[in-house]
Specification:
Blueprint lengths: L1 E5 L24 E4 L4 E5 L3 E5 L4 E4 L24 E4 L12 E6 L5 E9 L8 E2 L1 H6 L15 E5 L11 H15 L1 H9 L2
């Protein structure tokens, strides 16, 4: 079994509003919680993850309420393994946390299933996504230097979720079904050409 220790580092990562002594666990630029003691927070037959004191955990607005410890990264949606979109507050007039989505890279034609998992600052436009979403769309997933300015289409299915995080296979199957029933790429192209 390999053990992955996540310990603090001393340098500024992400936006200026984040602490300067931190290790990014889930995503850079999110909200952070300080852990106060070393403990195992996740384990499989191959990897054990241990958080050390003064480590920060990136929080998403969508979280697993059955995990009470806000310092446990398993409570939140993992940006590295789950494709998700981030909506500005205005987006929540139509959608809610946990709703399913389909995101299309209009440059290369790649399509990815996703879930609505976080809320951005009000002044930011729609367009932020997780590391996993960027990877699935063939976009550089580097949180500091990656991303793409335009050419991404978002289809969000209001009321489709239950307000809880979902497993990747469920996100993919449910989102694909919604996308096909909605009309798929043909409908998206039609909407974009209006």
């Amino acid at each position: 079994m390999r053990t992955v220790c996540i310990a603090p580092i001393t340098r500024t990562i992400g936006s200026g509003s984040t602490p300067s002594n931190m290790q990014a666990i889930l995503e850079i630029g999110g909200r952070w919680r300080l852990t106060r003691e070393a403990r195992t927070v996740g384990q499989s037959s191959k990897v054990r993850i241990i958080l050390h004191p003064d480590t920060y955990v990136s929080m998403t607005s969508l979280f697993d309420a059955s995990i009470a410890d806000e310092r446990n990264p398993r409570r939140f949606v993992d940006a590295v393994s789950i494709p998700y979109v981030v909506l500005p507050p205005e987006g929540f007039k139509h959608a809610k946390l946990g709703d399913f989505a389909t995101v299309v890279n209009l440059h290369n034609g790649k399509i990815a299933a996703a879930i609505v998992a976080d809320e951005s600052a009000p002044e930011l436009p729609l367009g932020e996504g997780s590391i996993a979403l960027a990877s699935a769309l063939g976009i550089d997933p580097d949180p500091r230097n990656g991303g793409i300015e335009k050419g991404i289409g978002y289809v969000i299915y209001p009321g489709s979720g239950n307000g809880k995080p979902r497993a990747l296979n469920e996100i993919v199957s449910v989102s694909e079904g919604h996308f096909q029933r909605w009309g798929g790429l043909q409908m998206l192209r039609s909407c974009l050409n209006k």
